[in-house]
From TrEMBL:
Signal peptide: none annotated. The gene is rbsK. Its main location: cytoplasm. GO terms for molecular function: ATP binding; metal ion binding; ribokinase activity. This is Ribokinase. Coiled coil: none annotated.
Amino acid sequence: MKFLNYGSINIDLIFSVDHVVKPGETLSSTNLVKSAGGKGANQSAALAKAGAQVFHGGKVGSDGQFLVELLKSYGVDTSFVRHYEGSTGQALIQLDKNRQNAIVLFGGGNHAIEQKEIDETLTHFEAGDCLVLQNEIVHTSYLIEKAKQRGMTICLNTAPFDEKIAQLPLQLVDILVLNEIEGASLAGLEIDVPYVQTLEILVRKFPKAEIVLTAGKAGAYYGFKDIRLHAPIYDQPVVDTTGAGDTFIGYFLAARSKGYGTEKALNFSCKASGLAVSKSGAMASIPFASEVFC
């Protein structure tokens, strides 16, 4: 199985501050870190580190070439990353002393993707291959519809969750991955309801999709038809939660493609996420297959 992850590629600018800046306030930062980001890029890195064959589709400006090289270094095929005369996607992140953040996003190349580029990329994939998507680029509905016509399996991560999710052809999605807040929103529930209740409503609402619900310290839940599974977290000291969900998705899909059953894949994914949060950074913290599949 080949994976095509058509997703975001961002430059993250992380400012360490005492507190998130208030309106009209000027605040000095104690540190500035420039790093690779974007949920799409993180998930491609996770898939590659887990040993899957993954191709990344997307768009960057000249300022994003270092991101392309980084993905390549992890084993991601970047043949379908286009370049254009504009800016790569940007995330300006304020990180306060309590590790809480505030983020301003600029779409850049993620919003400059064209349908003709999607059409050309999809000609290289066929039935049995998997398309991986998030909610950070344009033309997601088009991607879902065109990939389904080719017989591809479609995995959608609903992050970041907003009103656009409800407008997507979710009935065509094969694997729907959500966190507990996104799951409750899509199910029309309050965020403090039991996770199993959220799972049951989503299974009934999307009967053709496998539902994967990540729930932080409560682990992960899975529902499809009459199957219900739960995997606990892999308990590690938490240093940085950035990219934990992306790590989970990459390892879940990779484990399944390697022939592991769903329950085993859930446990491997929780282990990979636990290892990831015990280190700083996003892509850099994602463990390699030898650390997880053992």
